[in-house]
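Need fresh eyes. Consider my entry:
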Amino acid sequence: MTAAHAAPGAGSAPGAGAGSAAAARTTSGSTEPAPFGADPARTVRASITQASVERAFAILIAVAALGFGATTVPAVLDQLPYLDPVWGPAVACGLAASFLFVGASVFVKRLAQLAQIVCALLFLVALVTWPLTVRDAIPSDQVPWPWWLCTVGSTAAAMGFAPWRATVYTALVPTAYVIIRLTPVGGDAGVRALLDGVYTAILSGAVLVIAVVLRRAATSVDAAQATAVRRYSHAIREHATEVERVQVDAIVHDSVLTTLLSAARADTVDAEVLAARMARNAIDHLEAAAADGPGDAPPVSLVALRTRIADAVGALAAPVRVEERRLGAIRVPGTVADAIASAALQAAVNSVQHAGGAEVDRWIVVEQRGPGVHVEVGDDGAGFEVAAIPAERLGVRRSIVERVVAVDGAAEVVTAPGAGTRVLLDWAPRTGDPR
């Protein structure tokens, strides 16, 4: 009934309310304002998201690694004569390669965390093996060249490791540096070593705190936006139910009660005939209301379905390309179109939130396959492990797979970490079904 037309895209997962484009449509194809304002999934653009924070962190560590690495080259060259002729250059070159890896990872998002971890570990190796690297004591007016990169290593650890591992790393680096500086191979710096260690600990700790706070804030923003979308969807369903109740109450009041009163007062043949006619009309009204179910929504052409999906994804925070394919003249039931459009939009929302930023290529293909329709929502982003999704996360299972299965369709998620994601939606009429 009305509920079916008012909230076809309602769902329980983030982005489920994004089907409000269909929710605002009437059976005549016109659009009406949503009863509770704009859909948060389409109009709210969070300024801080987990993807944007991770992107900013990747750029920050790349700039720091390349910048500090370049300024440390003269110190490394000055100290090479005092270092082991094999291990000294090998450590310096290995760390330089990790810095270049971090810089390159800015353009390949899925490699960013790996590059940060490699950089942090190689710096730690360079630091703790310094006593083995030094062949002759360096001049007293110089400091071991790893000192200039302590903050880079700690920053890479803060961004690449889990918070507790990064905390251990941030405490370990200054401690190791102070111990090395107090030895003859480190310059026997005395109080200066303690001051340098405290400086490094404060700066590295500040970076770690900022990274943790921003990540948690971004996670909270993503969760708040998902909650807003779920509440909007719930409100749409509640509103549709209330509208339906009002319509039924109107039928009961205007037709059924009036008929009963007329029948009770019928004391002539003409009055009885009129009461019988009114009773017939009341029954017709009730049957029409009961028959106004989801299955009676007008069929939708594939062109209209593609247009609906394109309009919906056009408001997302990252571009999604809707490919033009030749579409046949078949039409799918309205409920099928609503389910497929809502599932496709949910898949696109998931891609925008989790696959990466605007550099990720995202596409949607709508095409006819035999008597049915096939929709592919894909990206070349981060991908994920389907088996690793917690049971309480309903975005893929409820808002995509079950939504399409509920209209006798099929949904498949093809993905792997680092290999992108493709969501395949298929529907075809069963043999003998009316078209």
Notes: The longest strand covers residues 362-369.
